[in-house]
Design brief:
Nucleotidyltransferase, domain 5, alpha+beta, binds zinc ion, six-stranded antiparallel β-sheet, six-stranded mixed β-sheet
């Protein structure tokens, strides 16, 4: 299996009054490095794309990306360039990127041009920016690529800010993290540009400190929260069904919480986030996490407050009527 570390440059509308035609960011360059299973560089890839929607370089793009209008005019059409990239990627690979936005925009561009999606459901990838945070910081903070390069004492032998250059440095950061903290690689990410289409495409992963579940699509929120699998609270450490002490309740219509109790491991906090797909249906991202007793009490408190608020509202309405 190979690792494809890639980076994109994109262009956007120069005129804020012009609509984005369903594509706010148009890709103008793909740069990538191919690493083998030992993370050794085996090939490189670079292609410039001739934009079809935003044909002139936006001033912000111009400031950060070192591409001229002439470069773009001589670029290839997106479908051709993308197909070339996919052929170059080969069959067995994992995409690796710095951050999360490139992978979504890549798929949005593919969809816009009527190309087949990269996967049936969520797409597994490695977010090297997240890896860096997990390996060296709190796992939450997100740093710029150059920060990580400096932090890890990586030699800056080529300039930054063309797609290939950023892919090149991202690959170096990845390699360095992997040689010191190889376990970081367990923290895979999933891009949900395409939600799971059926039960078998659903995602369930156990990490060291939490578990994550990404459901298939549902017609609406009620159908989602009524689903048996969505409601389930299995302990991610022992696999036992943890009994719900505070049943799922809605906080703001988008987020739901629950508290379950595993006899062996203690309290688990469940969180469900309702997400909307482009077509308007709903899918769910659920996380379960072990928490101390205080968190359980906080959640109980929150539920009680919400209950009182609702009661007040009902009362006020009644008095008005
Ligand atoms: Zn357990």
């Amino acid at each position: 299996m190979n690792y494809i570390v890639f980076d994109l440059e994109w262009n956007q509308s120069s005129d804020k009054y012009i609509k984005d035609y369903g594509l706010p960011f148009e890709i103008i360059e793909i740069g990538a490095v191919k690493l083998n299973r030992w993370l050794k560089v085996v090939d490189k890839f670079e292609v410039i794309i001739k934009p079809q929607i935003y044909r002139y370089i936006h001033y912000i793009t111009n400031r950060i990306v070192h591409l001229s209008q002439e470069d773009l005019d001589n670029g290839k059409p997106f479908p051709e360039a993308m197909q070339e990239f996919l052929d170059w990627c080969g069959k067995d690979y994992v995409l690796c990127i710095w951050g999360t936005s490139d992978i979504t925009e890549l798929q949005r561009n593919m969809m816009y041009h009527g190309m087949d999606m990269l996967s049936q459901g969520p797409l597994k990838y490695y977010d090297i920016q997240k890896f860096f945070s997990i390996a060296y910081e709190d796992g939450k903070i997100r740093r710029a690529l150059e920060y990580a390069v400096d932090y890890l004492d990586i030699k800056k032998d080529i300039p930054f800010h063309r797609a290939y250059d950023d892919a090149y440095y991202t690959a170096k950061v990845f390699k360095k993290i992997n040689s010191f903290k190889p376990k970081t690689k367990k923290y895979v990410s999933y891009d949900i540009f395409t939600a799971p289409q059926s039960k078998k495409d659903e995602i369930s992963v156990n990490f060291k400190t939490y578990s994550k579940y990404i459901s298939r699509e549902f017609a609406d929120k009620n159908a989602a929260i009524e689903d048996k699998e969505v409601r389930s609270t299995r302990c991610y450490l022992c696999g036992r069904n943890a009994r719900q002490q505070i049943k799922w309740f809605s906080v703001n219509g988008k987020h739901y919480y629950c508290i379950a109790y595993c006899k062996k491991h203690g309290y688990l906090k469940g969180k469900v986030r309702m997400k909307k797909t482009d077509s308007g249906s709903i899918y769910v991202v659920k996380t379960l996490k072990l928490v101390p007793k205080e968190t359980m009490l906080e959640i109980a408190d929150k539920q009680e407050k919400l209950r009182l608020q609702r009661m007040e509202k009902r009362k006020a309405k009644k008095e008005k009527d």
